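Thread: Modeling a multi-component assembly for a lab meeting

Hi all, long-time lurker, first post. My supervisor asked me to bring a structural picture of a complex we are working on to next week's group meeting, and I have zero experience with this. I have the sequence lines for every component (374 residues in total). Could someone generate the structure of the whole assembly? Inputs are pasted exactly as I received them:
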Amino acid sequence: MDLISIVQQVESSPIGEWMRTSLKAMPVVESIHVMAVAVVFGTILIVDSRLLGLLDKRRPYSVISAELLPWTWAAFVVAVVTGLLMFSANATTYYENTPFRLKMLALVAAGLNMAVFHLFSARHAAEWEFAKSAPLGGRIAAGLSIAIWTSVIFLGRWIGFTKGYDFAIPEDVELDFDFLDISFNYLRGMTEELIARVG
Amino acid sequence: MLQFAEWLQATPFSVAIQSAGWAIPLIQSIHILMIGVVFVSILMVALRVLELVRVEQTFGDVWRRFAPWIWSGLVVMAVTGLLLVIAEPVREFTSLSFWLKMALIVVGIVGTIAFRRSLAPAALTQHHEFEFSAATKAGAVATLGLWLAIIFLGRAIAYDVEVWGSLSLVASFAG
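Re: Modeling a multi-component assembly
Sure thing. I ran the full set together rather than chain by chain. Output:
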């Protein structure tokens, strides 16, 4: 069975039907999603700040991660469950939605970043966890983690503005803005300015 | 109130935010990032009161670690929140969730300041010798519930009629 038919089945499932027709389901599920995302992001930020040597420098990394990661994982599970519920309401629309696809890619990137960190830097945590910051590899992983999770939140919010509902659309607003295009243009402008200055 | 909202919504600054399609999602995203920072900082302080995290640190150390993040995060949320109100005042002012959210934020901030002021020096400087009273621990749990309710109400602004039904202000303003 291919992916699109699974997506169609999800949308036509009783759960998808309930998410679409129940008035209160969407706001309640969305709020719980925001709460879970907040806990995921906030706890990860504390662990990453420690790896970067910005905060909690005197607390060993293993203590901080053991204390926080259960909260991160529990909240992540809640975020996935509520995310799936929201997805089921309009699965075929989300499946085609660019910010949604990019968000899924960003989540994969976050997972890969974490896997690499655990395979390399975290393995030798005993050697550096009392140091002020993690070795370069750990600091890079922490910086990437903050950047990726920030983009996950941005992309998540963007989905809500591109799927059509949950937003009273004023007539003169350009809604079909291509944020990739906007970002590229912005980067191009910055690069050109930089080249102009250097040259 | 509705007249004021309509006037505000027609001001050039409000129109500028509304007509840049990326502005509102961008401001909302920053608002959500700050919810993560502030809520987890409050969670850590509350969990320290409950002696579930950072028991080897004094409460004073934990408070000094997280309080700057709570207050500066709240300032960023106030600024981004204000921008969202300026951009869509009618949507906010006609929402019961918005007004309940504002009221609960006042309760949360006043409560946090009152809690910090009521702390005896021993609470801040001692670790193992000092234990918070059962009432303070219950207060820590209640505080978490309060901020979760604030997060819920924030999201519920977009669904005022769905959440509140006939209590929703949208209907009374429209009528």
